[in-house]
Amino acid sequence: MNEQKSIEEFALAYLPSLEDYLRIPTISAQNKGIRKTVDWVKQVFKDLNADTVEEWTDQGGNPVVFAELKGNSNQTVLFYNHYDVQPPEPLAEWRTEPFEPTVVDGKLIARGVADDKGELMYRLTALRWLKDHGGFPVNIKFFIEGGEEVGSPHVGDYVKAHRDRLTADACIWETGGKNEADHFQVIAGLKGIVSFDLHVKTADADIHSSLAAYIDNAAWRLVRALSSLTDDKHRVLVDGFYDGIEPLDEASENAIADMDFDGDKIKKTYGLKRPFTSDDPKRAVVTAPTITINGLSAGYEGEGVKTIIPKEAKAKLDCRLLPGQDPKEIAQLIQAQLDKNGFSDVQLHYNLGEDAFHSDLNDTHLQLAKSVAEQVYGAGKVRFVPMMPGGGPAKFFVDALHLPVILIGVNYAGSGPHAPNENIRLHDYQQGVAYLIQLLRAYAQPKAQ
In the chain, helix, strand, coil percent, each to 5? Predict the structure, then answer.
């Protein structure tokens, strides 16, 4: 039996010992399951005989678990993960119990299995195998937070306060995996995000709709304000919105050209009923900032009929941003644009923001990540991605620690993070364990320095 096959068989056999992690409803938005989850994470590192297992609480928020394991070389790899997950609702759309890991047709289904508990599990599996087969090739550190799903409000403070403890040669971030063409992706960055609410109030109470002939309607007011922010091509019409965006370098441009994009498969995966909003969606997913209405609420939304003029209306929105766009500045520009467009009564409330970043695709650690991936997943079946459309607090690590950040994982295009029936494929999990073991071995070599 070759080593990769042996590792993959071990990964599948070891998986049940970690599944209790998925059974804990660690919902940071509802402050549920935090203590139990922190204890589980700490214990699993103690079982690996980690040299250091600490719980950091000095900067507030949910605890950070820091673990350190000494390796057989002078290279150090820092892993980032988060232990909190999204709420499981809508429950009626789940085919299995969301917090009872269940295998169906070769897929492990559970809330958080793709984002991000399963990512930590496959990394722990790789460590367990390495521990029993000669030890760790490199020094390993883990930073595992519990507030990512509510915007990682304290991560920047923790990174700054513990900068000396987090020093490393490279950081391997959470998430990643295979695209819609089933090609493995080595991702070098994340888009930024700003999340905000809009609110408008036009009266002190809801009013009978028979008076709509002369009384304004908060719902219409908000809808018109929202539509003033984009054109019919979905380009953002906010003055200064695109200013300062950093141009991509040649390596990133080449990577975008080589990226896969199967439009028909994407439409089928999500059951899309409308055409794409971009003429070049492959490029747009990396290079286009966005403004998105996440939800709208106004007036009566229950069963039956209630004919009213709503007194107020609310909307939740986010923008996905590029390097060079500051989240707080973008929020200010949007409020200024609403004022300019005649909607100064529509007020913006800032929720959270995270900066975009991308690592240099020519960095040795990224190049090694791609070359090792080609050995495990097959030549021609690996793609560089300059930035994925999701967000995260990685820029804090880049700025404070000055290291390349690499996103690799065991998801696939149908994993459905944040959605009902979130899942990963068992074979991807097994391959991911084998790949990570080989990658850590490669980082231990002098060429990684």
Answer: 35, 25, 40
